[in-house]
């Protein structure tokens, strides 16, 4: 961020990537990312984690839902390395992956702090964060044991 | 199915666009059938069947605007067959026209990207921030998983592009008609690993249409009718991150249901028109439709089984990889299947073709729709 040309302290930095909108059902999730807390939604009836967060449980249609903090540990289910990104602000190559979380749900993310050539199916990963322009953070994942995976 | 038409060009571009191109396709398909617009009382269109009918000045009593992406046209055939069988209507037309190549040249047209979806929606929140290239990224993820789980190789995927190109050399309308080698596929630029440029479909102008009516009425028409023997549709996700297993598409269900309805087994099929947006897409169809076991698609295609002279001719028009791909390719599967079963395909004709499968894939491996078709001899 510090090397962006023509940066002025008055101006809010322009988002580099497409930043996720917030919906009523996901407000709590995104609020928690301000403190780099990774929340998962659970159905109190089914006792199953839900992802993506929504208004009702996709198993029972119940609305008895709660948020619990996740340790953010998972495994790479599959991935692709983007060599020619559609978004010109993102420089390839970088890795987009589907992560199977320990809680039994799957989400898309980037694998960071890891050379794309070294990413593999089955690799253990843990939560990492990238700051968004409005104080929220975007959940990303880094290989477990990586020395820089915590915060930035 | 009593009338078909399609158009594409080696330049990748067509003169007409929009409703004008749709109207020409409808007119050609009706002429092929020996019918006129006055006979039409059912309309299928993946954008707006109402807008199309208004343009044509007809008042249909069956209407279908279902849009499941590229498989929309197989779904339309399924719905039209059911509607005709139920007595809702007698003659149904379906049409598609899209000219992304010309549109881009004219500086207008549709461009995907972050601005495409406004407001909160699951894809904007949970996928778009991560910079996955669309539409090839999700297919690349399926390929990575298939390779990891079953040992499928880039060479095997490339063989699908090579075999399909062999068919395209016999289609004078195909965008690419020069022979292709595995080495050339592997040497083409990596787009989103493990997919190379030549693992990916074209972006070209193209259009097509079909006409359907009851078996009874079909017997008196211009061409030998081709019968819809079975149909099946299934979708199991919309976003790739919600796909339960990236190595198994909902085609495993749509295909099994269509085959059961038709009383046909994969071994009875003379021609597979399997949606090839990417090489991996076609490979997954071969497995999910039961032409080989799950995980064995790579070895299955290796010796050119799907090429001219092979035991399972696949995508004989040159496919989305080499003939044309205007975005929602499913219409061209139907048109080629009908022409092959009528024996009209000249140098690329599959000898004695009696049973064909048109298998459409929509969105990101999301919605599969399978149509089993046969000649009069298969009834
Ligand atoms: Zn529940």
Provide structural commentary.
The complex is a heterodimer of chains A (152) and B (379). Chain A is mainly beta and 152 residues long. Chain A has a single domain (23-144), classed as OB fold (Dihydrolipoamide Acetyltransferase, E2P), CATH 2.40.50.840. In chain A, 5% of the residues lie in helices and 34% in strands. Chain A is built from 1 helix and 8 strands; from the N terminus they run αββββββββ. In chain A, strand 7 and strand 8 form a beta hairpin. Residues 1-9 and 146-152 of chain A have low confidence and may be disordered. Chain B is an alpha/beta fold and 379 residues long. Chain B has a single domain, classed as Peroxisomal Thiolase, Chain A, domain 1 (3-Layer(aba) Sandwich), CATH 3.40.47.10. Chain B has 14 helices and 11 strands. Chain B has helices spanning 18-33, 49-56, 72-85, 100-105, 122-126, 136-150, 154-168, 182-187, 215-218, 251-262, 279-288, 297-302, 319-323, 330-342, and strands at residues 3-7, 42-44, 62-64, 91-98, 190-192, 195-196, 206-213, 227-235, 271-274, 355-362, 367-374. In chain B, the strands form 3 sheets. A 5-stranded mixed beta sheet of chain B has the order 1-7-4-2-3, with helices on both faces. Chain B has a 4-stranded mixed beta sheet with strand order 8-11-10-9, sandwiched between helices. In chain B, strands 5-6 form a two-stranded antiparallel ribbon. In chain B, helix 7 (154-168) packs across helix 11 (279-288). Chain B starts with a strand and ends in a 5-residue tail after the last strand. The relative contact order of chain B is 0.19. Chain A binds chain B through residues 17-23, 26, 52, 54, 77-87, 90, 94, 96-98, 106-110, 116, 120-122, 138, and chain B through 112-114, 119-122, 124-134, 137, 140-142, 144-145, 148-149, 189-195, 240-242, 246. The structure holds zinc ion (ZN).
């Amino acid at each position: 961020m510090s090397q962006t040309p023509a940066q002025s302290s008055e101006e809010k930095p322009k988002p580099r990537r497409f930043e996720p909108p917030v919906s009523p059902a996901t407000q709590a999730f995104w609020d928690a990312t301000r403190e780099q807390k990774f929340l998962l939604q659970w159905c109190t009836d089914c006792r199953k984690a839900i992802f993506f967060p929504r208004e009702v449980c996709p198993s029972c249609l119940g609305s008895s839902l709660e948020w619990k903090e996740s340790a953010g540990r998972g495994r790479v289910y599959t991935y692709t390395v983007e060599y020619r990104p559609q978004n010109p602000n993102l420089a390839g190559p970088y890795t987009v992956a589907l992560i199977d979380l320990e809680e039994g749900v799957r989400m898309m993310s980037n694998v960071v702090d890891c050379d794309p050539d070294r990413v593999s199916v089955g690799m253990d990963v843990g939560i990492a964060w990238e700051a968004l322009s409005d104080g929220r953070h975007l959940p990303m994942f880094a290989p477990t044991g990586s020395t820089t995976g915590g915060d930035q | 199915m009593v009338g078909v038409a399609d158009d594409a060009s080696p330049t990748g571009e067509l003169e007409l666009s929009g409703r004008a191109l749709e109207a020409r396709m409808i007119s050609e398909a009706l002429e092929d059938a020996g019918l006129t617009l006055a006979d039409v009382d059912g309309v299928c269109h993946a954008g707006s069947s109402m807008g199309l009918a208004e343009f044509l000045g007809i008042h249909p009593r069956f209407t279908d605007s279902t849009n499941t992406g590229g498989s929309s046209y197989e779904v339309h055939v399924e719905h039209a067959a059911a509607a005709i069988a139920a007595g809702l209507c007698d003659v149904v037309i379906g049409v598609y026209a899209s000219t992304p190549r010309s549109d881009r040249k004219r500086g207008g047209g549709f461009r995907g990207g972050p601005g495409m979806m406004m407001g909160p929606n699951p894809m904007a929140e949970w996928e778009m921030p991560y910079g996955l290239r669309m539409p090839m990224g999700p297919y690349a993820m399926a390929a990575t998983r298939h390779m990891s789980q079953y040992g499928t190789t880039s060479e095997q995927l490339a063989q699908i592009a090579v075999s399909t190109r062999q068919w395209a050399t016999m289609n004078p309308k195909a965008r690419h008609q020069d022979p292709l080698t595995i080495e050339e596929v592997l040497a083409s630029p990596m787009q989103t690993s493990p997919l190379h440029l030549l693992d990916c479909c074209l972006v070209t102008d193209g259009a097509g249409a079909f006409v359907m009516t009851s078996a009874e009425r079909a017997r008196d028409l211009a061409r030998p009718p081709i019968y819809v023997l079975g149909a099946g549709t299934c979708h199991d996700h919309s976003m790739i991150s919600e796909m339960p297993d990236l190595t198994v598409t909902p085609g495993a269900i749509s295909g099994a249901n269509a085959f059961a309805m038709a009383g046909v087994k994969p071994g009875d099929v003379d021609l597979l028109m399997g949606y090839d947006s990417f090489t991996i897409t076609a490979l997954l169809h071969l497995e999910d439709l039961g032409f080989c076991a799950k995980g064995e698609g790579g070895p299955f295609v290796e010796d050119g089984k799907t090429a001219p002279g092979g035991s399972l001719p696949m995508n004989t028009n040159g496919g989305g990889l080499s003939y044309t791909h205007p975005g929602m390719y499913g219409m061209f599967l139907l048109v080629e299947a009908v022409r092959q079963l009528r024996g009209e395909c000249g140098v690329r004709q599959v000898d004695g073709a009696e049973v064909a499968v048109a298998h459409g894939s929509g969105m990101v491996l999301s919605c599969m729709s399978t149509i089993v078709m046969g000649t009069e001899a298969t009834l």
